[in-house]
Amino acid sequence: MKFEVEINVMPLKDLLDPQGKAVLGGLANLGITEVKDVRVGKHITLSVEAASAEEARAIAENASKQLLANQVMEHFEITING
Q1: Tell me: the pLDDT tens digits for 52-62?
Q2: Which comes out higher in pLDDT, residue 56 or 82?
Q3: Distance from CA of residue 54 to its chain's centroid?
Q4: Residue 10's closest CA among 78, 81, 82?
Q5: Cβ–Cβ < 8 Å for 23, 40
Q6: Looking at residue 61, what DSSP letter applies?
Q7: Which residues are paired to 2 by β-bridges?
Q8: In Å, how far are 1, 30, 32, 47, 70 from 8, measured between CA atoms?
Q9: Neighbours of 43 (CB within 10 A)
């Protein structure tokens, strides 16, 4: 079966997010001052061939741990569609 797997990778909350701070500054320059914090991450979509959703999740978790996320600085969440 084919599963669509979505992986959201975000910086850990305790770490500085320079991209988020830059976006926050840009919003302020545009006069959008209601936004108080911005975190910038990655959204990755994989098309995975697997026998089950559990197997697709295991494949995505392995890929995330080995390549897609730096676990020292980021955390990831996996969603299986299909």
Answers
A1: 999 999 999 99
A2: 56
A3: 20
A4: 78
A5: yes
A6: H
A7: 49
A8: 22, 27, 26, 15, 12
A9: 9
Could you give the CA distance from residue 49 to residue 3 in angstroms, rounded to a whole number?
A: 6
Nearest to 11 by CA among 35, 42, 50: 42
Q: Is 64 exposed, middle or buried (0-12, 13-18, 19+ CB in 10 A)?
A: buried
What's the distance, Cα to Cα, between the start and end of the chain in Å? 9
- Euclidean distance between CA atoms 73 and 79, whole angstroms: 21
Structure-derived torsion over alpha carbons of residues 54, 59, 64, 67, reported in degrees to the nearest 10: 180
pLDDT tens digits for 61-75?
999 999 999 999 999
DSSP class per residue in 17-45: -HHHHHHHHHHHHTT--S-------EEEE
